[in-house]
Amino acid sequence: RPVSAPSRFPSALDALRTVYGFEAFRGDQAAIVDQVISGGDAVVLMPTGGGKSVCYQVPALVREGTGLVVSPLIALMHDQVDALVANGVRAAYLNSTQTAAERAGVERAYLAGELDLLYVAPERLNGEQTLRLLERGALSVIAIDEAHCVSQWGHDFRPDYLALGGLAERFPGVPRLALTATATRETHREITERLRLPEARHFVASFDRPNIRYRIEPKAEPRKQLLQFIRAQPEGSAGIVYALSRKSVEQTAAYLAQQGIDAIPYHAGLEAGVRAAHQSRFLREDGVVVVATIAFGMGIDKPDVRFVAHIDLPKSVEGYYQETGRAGRDGAPAVAWMAYGLGDVVQQRRMIQQSDGDRAIQQRQSQHLDAMLALCETVACRRQNLLDYFGQESGPCGNCDTCLEPPETWDGLVAAQKLLSTIVRLQRERGQSFGAGHLIDILRGASTDRIRKLGHDRLSTYGIGEDLSEQDWRSVIRQLLARGLLASQGEYGTLALSEASAGVLRGESPVPLRKDVIGRTTQAAVRKV
Ligand code: ADP
Ligand code: ZN
Question: Ligand 1, atom 17: nearest CA belongs to which residue?
């Protein structure tokens, strides 16, 4: 007969106060904990910072047996276990970073009923060995963290998660919870189905983070814009700047440091010691700005991050929400700022087209990008758009750039027609296609070598777009791409008609476009200081 770890606390509230020192449960926590302690399953959708850990740790401390926590991020696992042990909880993990002897020690402790919580990486549960071990002991609850990883169409799919549905049959009497901070309606459905939680109670918290002010502006000189934005923040503000590539991380951090900002880089290519030192400076000192790739921040519990800035377009709204969600976890005002431009759109479309995933995956990636672009280009409330994406209805928020400084719009129909007809002519008459730069040169009547060599100064649309600046044209193209009224294709991101372009050429409806004012939002922020 397996030995169960004994119940450590008579009641949930008792555990909460003794172990964590919190006075009371927050939001849905009490209801979730009750559901699980009484043996029921739960699906928990709660934004980052909402307090998901308590939802499974407290039941594990109150119920007899060991709580199993499936967690995909090894660094996060280590942090959580360290924090629990420091609070007197008997917690341990099993993962690939351990020696055989260390693992054996943890296994013995589990079988002897000496563990309140056991963290395991998902791949361990995809094989018999760990499952047999777990069967020989006694589990109190099974928590599946980052449950959205089971969604094949999500932005974070992990194949090992698919096997976790099997835990239902393997441990029939053990209550299970699935938790995630990112779930669209579709992902929510997939979690329930694939993790086999048909009887679960569902707890869907509000995804709104009212203290975060969203600002998105067009990109002109990203580093300068970033600098201006950071300088507009209160002195000593800690922040995270996200960039897509390691190179861009390095260069941006160096630039900011040169300009007197206490900025340090963080990415997987840095030596482990340097990475740890940078992370610890960010956590412990005031006013440090970390420039990082998106891996940074997972599991970093720093409540007073005052801003999160993106200098490259995130690949999905889920990603954007997750990353911006690292700001203002203490509830005090914080800013999520982003600069994005035509180059981002073209680059990401190209990356999708060139990825070797099958058609369906590419299509889904495309949809993610479209949703992200719609958020960038909206003339309505950013928050409303964001929450709607997570299936939550709301009104205009009064705390985003579009609410605070409603963007001016203009009818871009004629401009769009000029551009599209140039593309059509080149395609039909000469079988040629070009990227944004050359098309803008044609429209603005530029006299470049390339134009003369190709005879493009003889096109009937040559020079018909002189009324707009190059910057204006880039804005037009970016917005048309974002709305699918124009397509970008191939390795070079050449522009082509989309299905919806025909309606524009026929002039069926107006094409309202935002007037781009570079640096507008940072200027406004500067003025207020
Ligand atoms: P999540 O995993 O949902 O991102 P965490 O479990 O890390 O959230 O909790 C976020 C923060 O909220 C942590 O700093 C945690 O200590 C704090 N917290 C959680 N529950 C409570 C509570 N009931 N009362 C006070 N603080 C809480
Ligand atoms: Zn708003």
Answer: 51
CA 378 – CA 215 distance, rounded (Å): 12
CB atoms within 10 A of CB 229: 25
Task: Count the Cβ atoms, other than its own, within 10 Å of residue 117.
Answer: 25
Pocket test for ligand 1, best of 16, 18, 26 (most atoms within 8 A of CB): 26
How does strand 117-120 pair with strand 91-94?
A: parallel
> How far lies 390's CA from each of 26, 294, 455, in Å?
21, 21, 50
Q: Tell me, using a 6 A CB cutoff, whether residue 249 lines ligand 1.
A: no
Tell me the two tokens of residue 227.
């600098």
How far is it, in rounded angstroms, from Cα 353 to Cα 357?
9
- In short, whether 207's Cβ falls inside 6 Å of ligand 1 is no
pTM of the model: 0.75
Beta pairing class for 512-514 and 409-411 = antiparallel
Ramachandran region, residue 39 (left: φ > 0; alpha: ψ -120 to 50; beta: rest): left
Binding site membership of 54 for ligand 1 (Cβ less than 6 Å): yes
Q: Is the CB of 50 under 6 A from ligand 1?
A: yes
Q: Which helix H or strand E contains 66, and what residues bound it?
A: strand 66-70
End-to-end Cα distance, the chain: 68
Contacts of 263 (CB under 8 A, 6+ apart): 241, 252, 253, 256, 257, 288, 289, 290, 291
Structure tokens, 80: 């959580």
Instruction: Judge contact between 358 and 326, C-beta under 8 A.
Output: no
Q: Which tokens belong to 327?
A: 């700001």
Cα-based angle 84, 92, 325 (whole degrees, multiple of 5) = 55
Orientation of helix 382-389 relative to helix 359-377, angle to 10°: 150
Query: Does the beta carbon of 103 sit less than 6 angstroms from any atom of ligand 1?
Result: no
Residue nearest to atom 5 of ligand 1 (CA): 51
Residue nearest to atom 23 of ligand 1 (CA): 25
Segment 42-85, tens digit of pLDDT: 999 998 778 999 999 999 999 999 999 999 988 889 889 999 99
CB 474 within 8 Å of CB 419: no
Residue 145 three-state SS: coil
| DSSP structure string for 307-347 | EEEESS--SSHHHHHHHHTTS-TTSS-EEEEEEE-HHHHHH
The residues pairing with 339 across neighbouring beta strands, listed in sequence order, are 217
Distance, in Å, from the CA atom of 122 to the CA atom of 77, rounded to the nearest integer, reads: 12
Q: For residue range 263-281, what is the model confidence (pLDDT) as tens digits? A: 999 998 999 999 999 999 9
Single-letter code of the amino acid located at 497:
L
The CA radius of gyration of the chain, in Å to the nearest whole number, is 26
Asked whether the predicted pLDDT for residue 16 surpasses 90, the reply is yes
Q: Which token pair is 383?
A: 């928050």
Whether complex ipTM tops 0.95: yes
Structure tokens at 23: 């006075």
